[in-house]
Specification:
7 strands; 30% strand; single chain; Aminopeptidase; seven-stranded mixed sheet
Length: 162
């Protein structure tokens, strides 16, 4: 099941586990600090307005993935304002290739529409070919590349995700 993250301590510990897998360079304390903001929807990163996190809940109530989204007033490579941004997207290995990543992105797209967005954007590290392919398979178009990564955007329109 895909749902919004909650602030239970048990859930935060699983969220830390998943974030550490996605971003191993960050310390546990950095992950915990970020989670305190993202679970409350509070801005803390750049000039974003707010955050939303959706998680995969397994039948045993443990977590199996997440998507972190932020809302920006504008971004230079996106045509519309405001714009939702996928800051992080993770699915446990045993749940990959079963449609859970797609469901997380669709939850994010519907949230973006609720915020008045017509587009959603994301970025991927240059060497992460698997994530680049996942973005393309979900209808994202490459906007540009830089030393920092590959940037994507997707029109979600007023009708919602395709």
């Amino acid at each position: 099941m895909i749902r919004r993250v909650n602030e239970e301590e048990r859930e935060k510990e699983e969220y830390v586990r998943m974030r550490k897998t996605l971003w191993p360079h960050a310390s546990d304390s950095e992950h915990r600090q970020d989670i305190e903001h993202t679970t409350k929807g509070l801005p803390f990163y750049k000039n974003e307005w707010k955050w939303q996190v959706f998680v995969i809940e397994r039948p045993n109530r443990s977590l199996g993935g997440f998507i972190e989204l932020s809302l920006y007033p504008e971004l230079p490579f996106v045509d519309s304002k405001p714009v939702a941004y996928i800051e992080g997207w993770y699915v446990d290995a045993d749940l990959q290739r079963q449609g859970f990543g797609r469901k997380l992105v669709h939850a994010g797209e519907y949230w973006a529409l609720e915020q008045g967005c017509l587009e959603i954007a994301s970025d991927v590290e240059c060497d992460n070919v698997g994530s680049q392919e996942a973005h393309m398979s979900l209808g994202f178009r490459e906007s540009h590349r830089s030393n920092e990564g590959v940037y994507y955007k997707k029109y979600i329109g007023k009708e919602g995700p395709l």
